[in-house]
Amino acid sequence: MRLECIGCGNIFPLAEIRYTCDCGNLLSVERDAIAVGRDVFDARRASRKPIDQSGVWRFREGVLDVDDVVTHPEGSTRLYERGGIFFKHEGENPTGSFKDRGMTVAMTQAKRLGARAVACASTGNTSASLAAYAAQAGLRAIVFIPAGKVAAGKLAQTLAYGATALSVRGDFDDAMRLVREACDKLGIYLVNSINPFRIEGQKTIVWELLQDLEWNAPDWIVVPAGNLGNTSAFGKALREAFAAGWIDRMPRLAAIQAVGANPFYRAFAESFAQRHKVQAETVASAIRIGDPVSYEKAVASIRATNGVVEQVSDEELMAAKHEIDRMGIGCEPASATTLAGVRKLRAAGTMRDGERIVCVLTGHILKDPDAILKTVSTIEIEPTIEAVGKALG
Ligand code: F0G
Fold first, then answer.
1. Vertex 340: Cα angle to 349 and 363 (nearest 5)
2. Can you tell me the mean pLDDT for 191-210?
3. Peptide bond between residue 73 and the one before it cis (omega within 30 degrees of 0)
4. pTM
């Protein structure tokens, strides 16, 4: 295994602490063919060992083949079918978001490298995940969050797990720039998805959902798109699954952005002629990101899967969230971009009737309670049976 530049192809050893090439491009963890078959993964799924129970480490030959891992365990999330659409609920991970899948790998690598402190910039889920895994690994956790812009559940979790939280007067993109500089100058290990080991863990969302479907590839995999770590990871996961013969055809990726935070959508609309930056604003605070770091890798994912990028308004994504909540599943606002995106892509004829679609729900319903309590409320009554009767109509 090696670190390989996605631009110039330069190669670095796995043990080197670096996130980008000297040419400025992102690095990717690359390996020769993954020589393990689906039967091995299926057998491990029935095993009681924590490393096999983890929906990340079950696929270890394609992630990072080490014995000593920092695992909760994570993954092994449910796949729901509702109204003819599948929902892979990554909010069922230990800290309530898909980030745990990347974090278990990044934290394992941090320990292997002898890091003392780990850091990230975050809209809240990465920071909660980092804080939990750092607590388990015994490392100092430092998170850079946009001041006043992180949902209550995420902020509370991050602090409860014991992270030092720096509230940056600026937006996520400012926090991201700052944490990169801080990690370079202060010798802290950076575990944002610019860290290629995070991507290796997040690939297992796709591998596990393929396994859930008994390796029958769906037509579409739909994912919210913010900093573009997941979009990057999903394309890599599909390329590798196809190359290893685990699936016999490629699903198409649909990456969905919020209208107010749509730099990737804008680039897609111009056939990726140029990279865009925006001043991001959306109710889906998880993806309030204007200058995504994994842009180049995400472009490769869309191209390799004949994928599409769509945008949905705050009204559309909140309506979809309401629907998902009322199914009894629930998710945070950013996750609901998926269902809103499906509705739009179906209306446009891009997605057709009868196609099998998997929406990836990235975060738990309780991550952002304020988004819910703005729209619904209790009925306050006097403690009398008459009041009950009146309230229930
Ligand atoms: N959904 C949720 C719930 C998220 O928290 C994020 C990203 C995304 C989707 C977008 O994924 O960045 O891989 O394109 N959250 C990051 C964080 C930015 O800091 O928690 P992406």
1. 140
2. 97
3. yes
4. 0.98
